[in-house]
């Protein structure tokens, strides 16, 4: 009979990859063969985060096991500077790392304990003095020449007293052959630089910085580039200044396709877009996690940093996103496959239906994503939206109807607010009185014509899986900002009224009805649709529509926002009956809405 240990190591590795840390711990205890087979996988990854090496290996037995099995370690992530120094100077077997993530919380604060493998010798302690993290990092990089992923945060680049910056020597020490992902943090460590009153370069200082940058770039002239590096992350801070000479390392990154950026100080931001165009000509994806820029122009410059045109843009909340930034965004419309904007606002509003420029150009789009739940707030004055009637009436070259959107079967996720639908049926009661929703300029005779035109645009997305038309949830801080009392917060009607009085839209009235009468059947081709989101919209989905969805959208799992007491409608009296019928239908279809769940 073939034993488990006789299986090829490749098969054992595949099995081990499916097991959790707990599973592996139990597996090595089964017998000697299993111990031999699974020990390498058990020790392949070492995570010491928000703890120290002594916290994790505080007994002679655990220290001995650590020393004995450390040759299997391939991935290290730690915040402990003592561990980094120990690996660099006291552990010769750490030479085969493929991933190293160092988010060190400070400099080594004491001498490093030399852990000996022999427990019989107890804990022989020998102190070694190390002049800060930077020298330990240099040593680690010399020993590990096969790194594929490297993340170095701010404390990695300084000596013990914080006076000597070794950023560029550390970058130069990285083996260029295998590195695929590099993340560096450029936070200034000198506390004086966090003084916002001391955050501007004068001309003389700026020129000195530029001279340093040119000199540092020249020093890399003969250095081999990172031939496999595809992903680069630069984290910074707009609370302090970054040494511009650090940017010289971009010369080594000509193959980078994805750039990830954190908050950047203004001077760094001014130079970075131009340097990225020159040094990283293959950029196709931008992940921006934090925008500290207070200028539409600066945002626009970053959005122009790709020579080939962006394929993916993941953009943060940007209060100062305006006309220039949007124009720069549209320049990449034809190459865009993924666009995510987590919220934007501007002092000077964009032209109405500016988003149409994207919808009529982004023919390769796969995913359009706007503000996420919990992100909406009172400062986000622009979300991805279209005024339906005006879009329909916009003519080009004498055409008889609006501009056609170019998205088709490639779209899988689509989030857009469809506004400005003529809805003569919509009325809202506030404090017991009828409150007619403002529909200035809307032509009620176009109620169904406009909706059918929108459905026609959406109907081309035949591989669409999620259609998000509803309002996302507000950031809870919005409520605390207005200091609503507990009585208001506990009553949804009162809360909605208070929000309306403060100019905060909590409900979308002039929305698509998604009723058969309005032309829902034009979406019959969306056979892959799994999720429909109509939260807080005046939709007219009844049992008839659910039956239609059941047969025409076989994979539909749920409709978010299906519940409604029709409080927005003039025919409020039939609201409870409609809701009861819908709830009964849903109760009869507990596994989902589409017919495929019941075949």
UniProtKB/TrEMBL annotation:
Domain named F-box: residues: 1-46
The organism's place on the tree of life at top rank: Eukaryota
Name the record gives this protein: F-box domain-containing protein
Species this chain originates from: Linnemannia gamsii
């Amino acid at each position: 009979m073939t034993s488990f240990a006789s299986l090829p190591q490749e098969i054992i590795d595949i099995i081990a990859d499916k097991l959790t840390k707990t599973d592996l711990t139990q597996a090595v205890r089964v017998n000697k063969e299993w111990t031999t087979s699974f020990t390498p996988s058990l020790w392949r990854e070492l995570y010491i985060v928000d703890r120290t090496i002594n916290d994790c290996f505080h007994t002679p037995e655990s220290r001995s096991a650590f020393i004995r099995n450390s040759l299997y370690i391939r991935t290290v992530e730690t915040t402990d500077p003592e561990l980094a120094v120990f690996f660099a100077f006291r552990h010769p077997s750490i030479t085969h790392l493929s991933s190293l993530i160092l988010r060190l919380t400070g400099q080594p604060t004491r001498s490093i304990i030399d852990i000996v493998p022999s427990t019989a010798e107890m804990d022989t302690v020998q102190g070694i003095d190390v002049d800060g993290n930077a020298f330990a990092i240099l040593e680690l990089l010399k020993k590990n020449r096969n790194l594929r992923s490297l993340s170095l945060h701010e404390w990695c680049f300084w000596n013990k007293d914080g006076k000597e910056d070794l950023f560029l020597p550390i970058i130069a020490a990285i083996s260029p052959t295998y590195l695929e992902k590099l993340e560096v943090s450029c936070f200034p460590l000198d506390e004086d630089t966090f003084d916002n009153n001391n955050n501007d370069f004068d001309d003389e200082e700026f020129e000195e910085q530029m001279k340093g940058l040119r000199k540092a770039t020249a020093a890399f002239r003969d250095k081999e580039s990172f031939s496999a590096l595809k992903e680069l992350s630069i984290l910074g801070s707009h609370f302090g200044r970054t040494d511009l000479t650090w940017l010289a390392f971009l010369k080594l990154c000509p193959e980078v396709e994805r750039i990830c950026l954190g908050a950047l100080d203004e001077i760094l931001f001014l130079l970075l877009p131009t340097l990225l165009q020159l040094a990283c000509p293959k950029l196709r994806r931008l992940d921006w996690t934090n925008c500290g820029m207070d200028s539409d122009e600066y945002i626009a410059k970053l959005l122009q940093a790709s020579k080939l045109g962006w394929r993916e843009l993941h953009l943060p909340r940007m209060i100062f996103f305006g006309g220039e930034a949007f124009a720069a965004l549209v320049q990449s419309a034809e190459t865009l496959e993924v666009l995510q904007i987590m919220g934007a606002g501007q002092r000077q509003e964009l032209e109405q239906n500016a988003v149409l420029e994207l919808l009529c150009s982004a023919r390769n789009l796969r995913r359009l994503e706007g503000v996420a739940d919990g992100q909406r707030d009172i400062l986000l004055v622009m979300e991805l939206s279209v005024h339906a009637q005006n879009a329909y009436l916009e003519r080009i070259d004498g055409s008889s109807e609006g501009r056609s959107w170019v998205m088709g079967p490639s779209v899988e996720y689509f989030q857009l607010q469809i506004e400005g639908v003529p809805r003569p049926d919509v009325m809202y009661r506030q404090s017991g009185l009828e409150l007619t929703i403002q529909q200035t300029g809307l032509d009620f005779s176009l109620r169904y014509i406009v909706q059918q035109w929108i459905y026609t645009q959406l109907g081309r997305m035949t591989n669409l899986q999620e259609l998000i038309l509803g309002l996302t949830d507000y950031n809870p801080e919005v409520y605390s900002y207005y200091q609503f009392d507990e009585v208001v917060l506990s009553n949804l009607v009162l809360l909605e009224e208070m929000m309306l009085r403060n100019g905060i839209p909590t409900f979308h009235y002039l929305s698509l009805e998604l009723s058969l009468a309005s032309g829902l059947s034009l979406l019959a081709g969306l056979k892959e649709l799994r999720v429909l989101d109509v939260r807080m919209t005046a939709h007219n989905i009844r049992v008839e529509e659910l039956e239609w969805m059941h047969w025409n959208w076989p994979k539909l799992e749920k409709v978010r926002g299906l519940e409604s007491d029709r409080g927005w409608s003039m025919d409020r009296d039939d609201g409870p009956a409609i809701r009861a019928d819908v709830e009964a239908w849903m109760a009869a279809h507990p596994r989902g809405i589409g017919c495929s769940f019941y075949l």
